[in-house]
Design brief:
about 475 residues, alpha/beta, Rossmann fold, 2 domains, three-stranded antiparallel beta sheet, 21 helices, 12 strands, elongated, disordered N terminus
Length: about 475
Amino acid sequence: MTPLRTGSTAAKPGRPDPTTLGALRSAGLTYRSVKAEMRDNLVGLLRSGRPSLPGIIGFDDTVVPALERAVLAGHDIVLLGERGQGKTRIMRSLVGLLDEWTPVIAGSELREHPLSPVTNGSRRLLAELGDELPVSWVHREERYGEKLATPDTSVGDLIGDVDPIKIAEGRSLGDPETIHYGLLPRANRGIFGINELPDLAERIQVGLFNVLEERDLQVRGYALRHPLDIFVVVSANPEDYTNRGRIITPLKDRFGAEIRTHYLQELDDEVALVLQEAELVADVPHHLVEVIARFVYELRGSTAVDHRSGVSARFAIAAAEGAAASALRRAALTDADAGESPVARIADLPDVVPALRGKVEFEMGEEGREEELLWHLLRIATVDTFRERLGGLDLTAFTERFADGEVIETGPLVPGERLLEQMGNVAGLATVLSRLGVDEDTVSAGQAAAAVEFVLEGLHLTRRLAKDEVDGRTVYGA
């Protein structure tokens, strides 16, 4: 089981004080099922106007309302969508709808609620100790379990199996306490997610029938009635139904809601997602992130790309991270712009594109032209961003800089200060910086160089400057 986060609950603030069942009862504790708990908390969030699933971008009018309805109805969920549409992120975000802390019987394998024990051992302990039954507390972050479905997954992995060690200790084979519980029952009193459910063999999927419908366990020949208190959410890719497997019909019928995800439909949402998810080792200017976002949109709309596979949001995230890494590499190799954070420039993207080739599946007829297509779509994304950001701006001062046959050399290993020295003072740079969202009062050399290089590339793509590639460097001229 992969928890959403790890760490000791003792270190988290706000842990409740009661440590016995009697103390819980004195505090007025009542039992609520996991689904009732999620429903009540979601209703509270909706009434307060706060987001129900923070960090989920671009789904406010589509996926999120469907998820909210499913939670309010108490339905287990299938998230159906292409790769890179945030299905796993959604699954893990649901944990925020749980109570921050929940009491469990101390030492219980299934994290049973003190007011609702389900195993014979816990019931015996309750009968013996009564109000002195020891209680511990579990934070909501530890109430999420997850399994990536793989073809070698067994019923024992998910549900449980006989534990030979317990048999060797002298317990009888028919004793339910000889069972080693699988991942799903160990997620009792929480949320359990299964990624790529169609990858599970059909005979393994059958093992989930009782968990989803009757909410109990069936392990080999044991007569068990352990009513599980659990919310189940799974993900699947539509292509998996034909390529790698399918969710068998009786199992699909046991899920209350099938929710389709989608790729982001607004450019600003794609930009926000990249800025939220990417781990950047250098500054990536907003206009460059916008170029990357448009690049992804061009790929998703291209007839050369296999749309059954899709273009994952990870493509844009990896591109931004690669551009930042290129800027850091430049700073390390040239020892330039000392004391400043490295800044990515448009020249950093071409070196990143080949590394992203494996993230895109092309149609069979495009074999051998993949990188050519990527370059072409990147140029389209760049010029569209240039026109959107700097369209209508008088850039004559930049083109006049090349009137006497002078050239400016740039590239992924040319420091920003060196680029600015070649450019010299040019009228209109302050306006360009403003259009690109850079504060003129705090602008660094790297940010100014990124803006200048973006202008030069835009002028080239709109056929106002020439451009040559020479020994890994880019030369702009009239």
